Amino acid sequence: MSTPTRLSDKSIAVLTLIAQGNSYAQIVDSHPDLTYLDIFAAAGEALWLHESRPDPKERLQQIKAKHARAYEPWTAEDDAALAAMSRRLCQVSEMAERFGRQPSAIRSRLAKLGLTNERMNVEP
Question: What are phi and psi of 42, to 5 degrees?
């Protein structure tokens, strides 16, 4: 079973009604398909999703700890060096290490520059 990444439709409906200022009693009385348990479940689902998402700043720090130049702009010098490595058919992992970037960033930049590398689809 996969971990949910978004609220269920029922939870969205319940939370929308709460956000509109409806009390629990108003929700249950005017929507026969909803119960108090549905309201509590929607709140629990929203809280679980909120707590399970990593803090974006913390996530960026984790990525930069592994790939120091992650998300930094590419320079013309970087592009030239990347092109040269691509022509030499260097491994994507080698390029990632050389530039301090994630392998996915290397593959994206190669594609953006119209460069191909036989190893692009082989390595993780």
Answer: -65, -40
Domain layout of the chain by residue ranges? 9-52, 59-112
**Cα distance between residue 45 and residue 51, in whole Å:** 10
Alpha helices in the chain (DSSP H): 9-19, 24-30, 36-52, 56-66, 76-87, 92-99, 103-112
For residue 8, the Cα-to-chain-centroid distance in whole angstroms is 19
Q: Is the pTM of this model over 0.70?
A: no
18-68 pLDDT per residue, tens: 999 999 999 999 999 999 999 999 999 888 888 777 778 888 898 999 999
Distance in angstroms between the alpha carbons of the first and the last residue of the chain:
24
Q: Which residue has the tokens 């978004």?
A: 6
